[in-house]
């Protein structure tokens, strides 16, 4: 049985729903928020209620639902909701809703809440391509982003009717993960949402490469790509233009991220180097294979007549992290590597990591202890971030989103040091 103290401790989220066909997808957003322990108040517009009725929102949230400022006037909901919220998330956000928010119009409960909110605000747009691309909408989006509002990029795909194009609501899972990342980051910064990556171009790699022996078999590793996706998502919320080079990642594309999909280490190297040519930072969270088969068979390799395994000759793959560190594409470019280490008779996890940092020449190295399969596929992570300047930042076990923001904090700090003339 929950107590009053438990209710107070739960993060308070206002889920705004505006009047688009994608309103039904907000039911999944609401479910994920409530199941993750958040206190959610749904505030639909009158148009949204034409798509999904108030009883549905009330049943899913466990709270009464209203779209009017005239309900429960004695509680002053048009001011109180925005004042008390830890996060306001609008999904879907129509062109009309964003126009009102950008110009400070407040003609219903949701727009009043947006005008009074002093917490982070996340908008997930959904509309037809022509509406998204219209100069007025783009100007409104720019205005909102300048004010610190996180406006996700809509996805591309099937819209209403036979239309396809950019304007589809991002995947509900991505909306929730992004929103919760924004909330966690804001709490770490005492309510503020940093846009310290605005105007920056960053590249993130994620996942694990595959090196094929034949059409059926490959050498691979256990990297899921969760940390790389969390890094990409966090960078978007902080204002960056993000390219994610994803190696065999079976996850939805992060909202607002340009995703390039690859399989092998050679493909990863080609795409990362191409994107890095214009990037302010490159974070190599992917796990490239160190070796590949010396030869690839065009047909499935068979067992020997006696059941013996054929010999397997391996050759070394290019060291992408060392190459990026050695040949910086731009002055002041920050390069971040990852090290999945285990201790052994020759040294501890950090001993091996410090040697790797010196050998690779990157600016930051994120060290994971992967003894007994830790980290891989888990939603949580703990790490130590080593800096080439001798700094050490320990990150206790928590969500991969939290670690992602710590990494970007350290990257932003490196940019400031470079700008001020402090040695790297």
Let me know the average pLDDT: 89
Q: What structural class is derived from the secondary structure elements? A: alpha/beta
Give the N-terminus to C-terminus distance in angstroms: 53 Å
Domains (count): 2
Name the CATH class of the largest domain.
Alpha Beta
Largest sheet: 8 strands, mixed
Counting DSSP H or I runs of 4 or more residues, the number of helices is 14
Largest sheet, order of strands side by side? 12-11-8-13-16-17-18-19
- Output the CATH topology of the largest domain: Rossmann fold
- The gross shape turns out to be globular
Low-pLDDT windows of residues: 1-8
Strand content: 15-25%
Determine the CATH superfamily of the largest domain. Answer: CoaB-like
Secondary structure: number of strands: 19
Structure description:
The longest helix has 21 residues. The chain folds into 2 domains: 177 residues, Flavin prenyltransferase-like (Rossmann fold), CATH 3.40.50; 212 residues, CoaB-like (Rossmann fold, 3-Layer(aba) Sandwich). The strands form 5 sheets. Strands 12-11-8-13-16-17-18-19 form an 8-stranded mixed sheet, sandwiched between helices. Strands 2-1-3-4-5 form a 5-stranded parallel sheet, with helices on both faces. Strands 6-7 form a two-stranded antiparallel sheet. α2 packs parallel to α3, α2 packs across α9 and α10 crosses α14. It is built from 14 helices and 19 strands. Helices cover 35% and strands 23% of the residues. A hairpin with a 5-residue loop joins β9 and β10. By secondary structure, it is α/β, with parallel strands linked by helices.
